[in-house]
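All the exercises in this workshop are built on plain-text protein records. A record pairs a protein's sequence with a compact description of its fold. Read left to right, the backbone structure tokens trace the chain's path through space. Once this layout is familiar, the rest of the handout is easier to follow. Here is such a record, shown just as it appears in the course material:
>
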Amino acid sequence: MNDTVQAEVIMSFLVSEELAFRIPVELDFDSADPYAIRLTFDLPGDVPVTWTFSRELLLDGLSRPSGEGDVRIEPSSAEYLSDVFISLQVGAERALFRVSAPPLVAFLDRTDRLVPLGKEEVCDTLDAVLDRILTEAPAG
């Protein structure tokens, strides 16, 4: 049985300088995939959209600009833990969100109690599977 952590946070979808929409976003963590977290946007009348990225990226983004690809996270202020910007990009399209940091910290704390950062066992399992495959592979 896998243990999970879930939380709902309210994010502001920043359409422009003058326009923002508050939307609920589901955060999910599954101990079977301890390196990843999922953000699911489930807007009325729309198909839910889920983004999966590293738990470490979210943690790093709370204190400094982080991410180099489709997901970038950075604090809104360097002085204190307040809000965080999350930028999601597909091709030329980009969506920018602002979310309060304390609910993210609480979520990450709960994931850390379930699977401490740095103590993930997926690699050990993967190594064991690879070793078995390589030892069972016919020489050729």
In short: The beta strands are 4-14, 20-30, 36-41, 49-54, 71-75, 83-90, 93-100.
